[in-house]
Specification:
Shape of chain B: elongated
Radius of gyration of chain A: 24 Å
Oligomer: heterotrimer
Strand content of chain B: under 5%
Order of helices and strands of chain A: HHHHHHHEHHHHHHHHEE
CATH topology of chain B: Cytochrome Bc1 Complex, Chain C
Chains: A mainly alpha (358), B mainly alpha (271), C mainly alpha (947)
Number of domains of chain A: 2
Strand order of the largest sheet of chain A: 2-3
CATH class of chain B: Mainly Alpha
Order of helices and strands of chain B: HHHEHHHHHHHEEHH
Mean pLDDT of chain A: 91
Number of strands of chain B: 3
Strand content of chain A: under 5%
Helix content of chain A: 55-70%
Chain lengths: 358, 271, 947
Amino acid sequence: MNAIKEFFNFFADPRVFFLLTTGAFVFAVWRRDLFVKPSVGYGLQIFLALFFGLGLLDENFRLIIGKPDNVPIVGLIFLLLFFTWYSMRQAVLNDQRIAKGEPVEEKVEEDRVWVWPDLVYVELICLVLCSVALIVWSIVLKAPLEQPANAAATPNPSKAPWYFLGLQEMLVYFDPWLAGVVLPSLIIVGLMAIPYIDTNPKGNGYYTFKERKAEITIFLFGFVVLWSSLIVLGTFLRGPNWNFFGPFEYWDIHKLEALTNVNLSEYIWLRGLGVGMPSHWLIRELPGILIVLFYVFGLPVVFARTVFKRYYEKLGPTRFYVTAFLFLSMLSLPVKMLARWLFNLKYVVAIGELFFNI
Amino acid sequence: MADTKTVAPKEGALERSWNWLTETQIWKSVFRHNAPITDRNRVLVVLSNVFLHLHPVRLRKSGVRLRYTWCMGGLSFFLFLTLTFTGVLLMFYYRPTLEYAYTDIVGLREHVPLGIMREMHRWGAHAMVITVWLHMFRVFMTGSYKPPREFNWNVGVIMLVLTLLLSFTGYLLPWDQLAIWAITVGSNMARATPFLGYEGPGASLLALGDVQLIHAADDARFALLGGTFVGEGALLRFYVLHCVGLPLAIAVLMAVHFWRVRKDGGISGPL
Amino acid sequence: MADKKAVGHAYNIDFLNVIFAASSILLFISTLWMVWDDYDREWKNYQRRFVQLETEVTRVALEAANAEIDPAVLEQFGADRAAAEAALAGQEEQLTALEEQEAEVAIQLTVASQIHQFTKADYDVDKYALEVDREGAEEGAFAEREAEVEAKYDEWLALGLEVERLTAESDGLRGQIGEIRQGVTDLDDQIRGLTSETTRLEERLADLAPSLINDYLLNAPLIDFMAPSITVRQVILPNILDDLNFIRVPKMDRCMTCHLAIDREGYEEYPQPFATHPNLDTYVSSGSPHALETTGCTVCHEGMPQSISFRDAAHTPTNLDQEHEWVEAYGWEEPHLWDYPMLPSGMAEASCAKCHVEEVHVPEAGVLNLAYGLYERAGCYTCHKTAGFEELREPGPSLRRVGAKLTPEWVAGWIRDPRAIKQTTWMPRVWYGTNTSTPEDARRNEVEIDAAVAYLFASSSDFEFAVQVPRRGDAAEGQRLVESVGCLACHVAGDEGRLEAGPRRTFGQALQNIGSKTTYEWVFDWVRDPQHYSESTYMPDLRLTDDEAADVATYLMSLTGGTPRAAEATYDQVYADEVLLDYLKAIVPTAEAEATVAGLSAEERTIELGERVIGRYGCFSCHDIPGFEETQPIGTELSEEGTKLISQLDFAHVEIPHTKIDWFENKLLDPRIYDENRVLQPLEKLRMPDYGFSEEETHLLVTAIMSFQREVQPTAALVPGSARQEALRAGRTLTRRRNCVACHEIENDGGDYVTLVDDPSLAPPLLTPQGAKVKPDWNYAFFKDPIAIRPWLDVRMPTFDLEDEQWNELLGYFAAVSESIGPFRAHTVASARGEFMATGEELFDLLRCQQCHVLDEIPPDQPTENLAPDLRMTPERLQADWVIDWIRIPQTIQPGTRMPAFWPNYPETFYQQFDQNAEEQIRSIRDHMLTFSGGPRPAEPVVNVGD
C-alpha cells in the first residue's frame, strides 16, 4: 500500500507532474485518433474516480481532498478532462467527415427546429438537474467556517481562493508584479485578442481540429495544461511554507527544502568570470536584460523569418507580432520553470533597487 | 372522403370549467395565445413572452444538441439567478461589520431557518466559476468567436473576470481565517502592480519632487482594500461590491451578451 | 421564396417527458430532504426531548405534592364547605336583594364619576385658557372669567362629594355580602392554601402537554420560522466582552439552548445536557454572584459562545473514556477550528482569574487556590515572569555561605537527583533529563555538576557560628519539641508525598535525612537564630532557649539516610575544558575562546565553567548566589500563556493530541520531551529542570497556566473594588505568602496544622473572628512580642520579622473579614454603678468562670483541653462588644469551642438577677470583667520611627 502511495507521491512532484501533463497533452494532440476513443475517455474518468475513491482511505489524502472548499476542484478535474476529451472527439469525427468530403455533423443538422418545446424543454431539464445537484451538494457538505479572522495569526499555508491558485503557484517562479499583475492581464488581453488575431475563417460553428490546429493547441496548452494543472498543483500539492507535499504525505510544518536559488547575474559574474559583482545595477544585469530584450523583440522576428514564415504571411505583421508576443509571454512560464528546475535560476534580471525582477 | 360530421365529444365537467376559465377576460389578458401545440401558437408564444423571447422562434437543430452547446451558458445564467436569489436571502441575516459578520454566519449555519442558503450560495458560486470556464472552452472549441461574434466574445471575457471578482469579494464576507488570509494573499499581488503598487517596479518614478505619490497608504492595494491591511474597510467595501456593484455590472453585460448572441446569428453553426 | 422546409423537432418529446418527470421527482425529493435537514437539527431534538423530561419531572413532583396532602384533612374541609354552603341557603333572598341593590348603586357610581371627570376636564381647559389670555393683562380685566372658573371648580368639588358618597354606600353593601359569604370564602382560601402547589403543578402539566397548535403546527417543518416553541435561547452580556481579535464585543451565550435546565433545581441527576449546574447558590441562579443573566457560561467554560452544535461549540471531554463515548454518540472530534475550546470541567476555575485579577486566594475556588499554591512552591514564577507573582521570595535557601553548611560531595549528590535524598523536596533535577541521559551526556553532566559545585564553594563567603562548640541535647526531648512547638506546620519531617502534605506544609525545606546533610553545629546555629545564617529567610524565630535548640538539633541530626544517586561518569579535566570551550564559543569567536581557556589554571577553568553552568540552568533564580544578583531569568513569560494560540506551541516530533492542555501537561511531566529525536548540539537542548510532578500536580499547574490570560474583561465585570475588598486582597496575599494559613484557619481556609494536633482546642486558634474579638493595638503589640495567652499549649506563636506596614495590612484584613470598622475603635469604660457591678461579680462567681479560666493561677483539676485564657487580660485584649456576643452564644462565633452556652435559648435565662433580663446579666458580667487587671501583657511596642 505504501509503495503505491510513494509512487503517486513521486509522480506528483511539480517537475514530474508538469512534464507529465505536457507530455500527455502533446501525445493526446499528436495521436488524437487514439485519445478520442470512448475507451480512453471513459477509462480516464473511471481511473480518476477510483484514484479519488481509494485515495480517501488514506488519512492525509482525506484531509486535503476532504476540505469542503477542495471538492469543486475535484469536480473541475473530472469535468475538464471529460469535456476536453469530448470536444476533441467531436472535432476528430468532423475531421474524418471533411476528409471523406462529407459535410460536418453540424451541417447535416442544419434544418430548423422549434424553440418551443425542444430547446426550452432541454434547458428546463438541465436547470432542474443542476438544482438537484446543488441542493444535494449543499446538504451533504457543510460550507467551511474556521476560527474568526485573526490578523495576528497567519495560517501556514495561507492560500488564495482556489481559482487564483494558478497565479499563486506562478509566484514560486516569478516576482509578484509579473506573476500577480502583468501575466494575468496578458491572459485577459490575450483572450480578448483571440478573435482579432485568428483570421482563419474555417472552423466557425463546428468542431474541427485539422482546420484549426495551431489555435486549438495553443488554447488547450494555455487553459488545460497551464491554468488548470497549476490550480490542481497549488491546491493539493502545496503545503506549509509552500513546500511540495505528495497527495499521501503528512503536511509537516517542519519540513525543510533547500531553496538555494541563484540569480543569472551571480552565475555570470561570480561563477562564470570569477569577478566581483559590479556595483551599478545596469552593468550587473546587462546580460539578463539583453536576453530578455532578445526574447521579447528578437525571437518574434526570428520566428517570422524562419519557422512561422507561413503564418507571418497569412496574418500580416501587426497580427503576427501581437500573437508572437502573447505566445512568448505564455511560454515564459514553462521556460522559467525549466530554468528553475535545471539551473536553480532565481532571477534572469534582478534589480532589487527598483523592485524590478524577472 | 365523405365529410363525416365530427361530433364534439360530450364535454365533461372538467373540460367545461377549463374552457370557461380559459375564456375569461383575466386569463386571456395574461395568456394571449392558446397552448403552443400548433406551429402558429409556437411562434406567437415565443414572440409575446419577454423571457421566452430570449430565444428565437426557430433555430438550427445542431444548436439544440447538448453535445454541441453543453448548455454551459444556460447553466451559468441559471446559477447566477440562484446566487442572486440565495444572496438576497442571506443579506437578511448577514451584517458586514467586524463584530457581527462571523457570529451571523455561525447563526446561519446552526439555527436560522433554511440556513442552508449559505451552502447553496457558496457551492453555487464555485459551480458558476466552473461553468463559465467550460462555456468559454466550448465557445472556443466551436470557433464561435469568429466574426461576426468577436465583440460578444470580449463581453464574455469581461464577464468571466467579473465572475471571478464576484467570487473573490464573496470569499471575504464570512470573516474567518480562511477568508481574511485568502484575500490578503490575493490583494498582496495588487501591491506589486507596476507603477501603481507601492512595491511594484516604477512606483518610485511617480513622485512630484520628493513627494511620493504612490506609497503604502495610497496605491492599488489600498484602493482595493480601503486600508493598508484587510480590515473593516475591506469587509465593507467587498460587501458593497459583492452585493451591488459587481452584480449590476455583470447583469448589464449579460443583457448585452444575450442581445449580441441573437443579433450575431443565434447559436453558431457552419455556413 | 424558396419553399420553406418544414420545421421539425430535434428530440422525441415522449423521451424528454420521461427524463423531465424523473428529474422533477428528484428535485422534489431533494427539496424535501433539504426541508427535513433544516427541521431535524441537533438542538431542536434536545428541546423536544426536554419537553418530555420536564413533563415527567413535573408529574413526579405532582405525585409528591399530592402525597403530602393528607386526604382526611382535605375531605374534612370539603364537608365543612358543603355545610357552610347549605347554611347560606337560608339567607338566600336577603342575599339576592343586597346584590341587586349593590349592582344598582354601582351603575350610579360609574355615571357620577364620569361626569365628575368630564367637569374636571372642562375646568382644566378653561383654567389654562384663562392663564394664557391674561398674561400681561392688567389686574381685573378677566374678573368675570375668573369667577366662572372658580364656579366650575366648586361644581367639580360637589360632584366629588357625590362620588365619595356612592362609593361608601357600595362598599358597605359589598361588606354585608362578604360577611354572609364569609364562612364559604374562608374555607375556599384554606383549601386553596392546601392544594396551591398541586394546582400549580397541574397547570404546568397542562400547558406542557403537546397541543395541536403550538407543538405540531407551529413547529412543523418550514412553518417553524414564524412562532415556534422550539427556539434558540441566548443571553447577551453587556459587561462581559469577547476579544474577537482586537475588537471587544459583548458576549452572547447560547448554551442554554440545549442545557435547558441549567438553572433549575430538580434536574441534578438527569443525563447531560439537561443536568442542573452544580452548587447553584454560587453560580448561575439569579440570586448568586455569577447569575446567568450577568455572567453567562463561556466566560468560565470557554468554547464557542454563539454555537449551538455539540461539535462546533468545542466541548472538551474530561477524560479518555468520556472522549470515546462522545465520539460514538455525537461524532465528536478535536475542535481544531476554534482557538479557545472548552476547559475540561475540573479546570473551569482557571477562568476565575479573568475577573478576580491577580488574586492569590479566590473564595470557593479551591482548585485554583491549590494550583497557585503549587505554582508558588515550585518557584515557577522565579524563572517564568508571571503577572501577579512579582516580588516574591526566592524559594531556595541562600547559598552565600554554603561552605559553612554543606560539603561539596553532598551538594554534588544532591544536585544530581534531589528527590533520591528527600522525596518531598521542591528542588527539581536539572541534569539527567530525558534529553541528557546518554553515556556521552553523562560525562558532560558530571563535568557540569562538579563545575557548579566548585563555583558555589569558591564563591561562598566564610561564616562562623554564634556558638563554636554547642552542647549536645536530648534527642527524645528534641523530637517532642519538634512535634509540638509547630515546626511540622511548615516542615515535613517524614517522607509524606508533596501533594499529600500540600503547599502549606511544604513551605519550609523537608527535614527528612537532614542528619546526613549537614553538621550539628550548623543545625544548632540555624535553629537558635535562623537570620544569623541567612538574613532574608522567612523562617520565624520560635524563641527556643539554647537547651531547647540543642535538643531539637540533636533530634534533627538523628534523621539520617537518603543515598544520593551515583555519578555515571568520572570527572576528567580534558573533557571539562572542551565543555568550557563549548560554552565560550557560543558567545565569543573560537580563537578568543581558546585564548581565554588557555590563560586559566585548571581550578580557575572549573570555576569559570561553573559560573557558565549556573547561568545556563538558572539556579540563581531560586537561590541567592553571589555574582548573579542582576542576571535575567531564563524562562519565557507566562503572564498571557492561557491566551496563546496553539500555533505558537511547537509540538516538534512528539505524537500527542494537538491541544494546548496536552502540550502543557506533557511539558510539565517531562520538560525535555520536545527535544525527542531532534538532532541538537548540547547548548541548543531544552534546559527546563524536571520536578517529577505527579499527574494530579500537573493537572493543577496546567489549571494555573490556563488562568494566566490576556486581560479582556472591562472593569464593570471585575470584582467591585472597595476599601474592604482591598484589605481582604492584601490580607489574603500576606497570610499565604508568609504561610500564616499553615497554622491558622481564616475564612474557612487553611489551618493544615490543626489536623496534626490531636485535640483542636490545643491547636492554633481560629482567626476569622479576630477582627471583632481583639483590640488592634493589643494585637499589634502581641505580634511584636507574642506572649503565651494559654501557657499550657505546646504550640508557640513565633516572632515574625515583618514591617509595621505588613502588620497593619494584617489587622486591616482581620477587620475586613469580621467587618468591624477598623483599628481606631474606642469604648467608654462601663458605668461603675454600685449594685450593677456587684451583681456582675455575683453572677461571675455563680457561673464559676475560674473553673476553666485562669484568673491568676491555672485551675489545677482541669484537663488541659478545658483550660481557657487568663481573664485579667480582657480589658486590654478584648473588644468590649465582642465579649457580650461571645458570652451570649459562643458556638456561633467559634463552632466546636469548649466554652459552655450559659444562655442556650437566649433570651430565656436560668438566673434571677435583673428580674431575668439576660442581656443585663451578660452586660454586668462583662463590666465586672473589665475591672480585672494585672494579667500577662505583651511589651509596649517600640515605635520604630524608621531610619
